[in-house]
Amino acid sequence: MNTQLVRGFTLIEILVSLFILAVGLIVLLDLFPLGLQALSYSRKIGEVSLLAQKKLEELKSQGIIEIGQKSGKEGDLNWQMNIRPLKLGEGIEVASAQLDIDFDFQGKPLKQRFITYLIGD
């Protein structure tokens, strides 16, 4: 008589593998909110960077650099620009432009600062 031994998985083995699978899925599901938060923050920082680029390009294109402070609001971003003269040496004069952009992210007020130096004509 030809008897074949059929081996399968025991109930314990199946339960252990389901437990390991469940732990892995729970860990992955916990990562999704962190990824969404990082995506939202990077989108906001991109918006802030585009506003900074726009304001600094406007400043450069004016030709004549006006010393002093300017401020304004675009969307939900508040900005303030402070332009000061700077003397680097004998006959070398530049203007320091500091642009501060205030914004809220998840109810927390944050500030991003951009600084550039402009050479007058």
Topology:
Elements: H1 11-61, E1 68-74, E2 77-89, E3 92-105, E4 108-119
Antiparallel strand pairs: 1-2, 2-3, 3-4
Explain this structure.
With 121 residues, the chain is an alpha+beta fold. 42% of the residues lie in helices and 38% in strands. The protein contains 1 helix and 4 strands; from the N terminus they run H-E-E-E-E. It has one helix at residues 11-61; strands at 68-74, 77-89, 92-105, 108-119. It has a 4-stranded antiparallel beta sheet with strand order 1-2-3-4, covered by helices on one side. The longest helix is centred in the first third of the chain and has 51 residues, at 11-61.
The CATH architecture: 2-Layer Sandwich
Q: List the domain count as a whole number.
A: 1
How many beta-strand runs? Answer: 4
Count up the helices: 1
Q: What is the CATH level 1 assignment?
A: Alpha Beta
Could you list the spans in which at least 5 consecutive residues all have pLDDT below 50?
none
Q: Under CATH, the topology is which? A: Pantoate--beta-alanine Ligase, Chain: A,domain 2
Radius of gyration: 29 Å
In spatial order, strands of the major sheet run 1-2-3-4
- Overall mean pLDDT stands at 88
The main β sheet shows up as: 4 strands, antiparallel
* Proportion of strand residues: 35-45%
Looking at the structure, what is the overall shape?
rod-shaped
Pairing-aware structural class of the strands and helices?
Answer: alpha+beta
Q: Helical content, roughly?
A: 40-55%
End-to-end Cα distance, whole Å, is 104 Å
- The ordered H/E elements are HEEEE
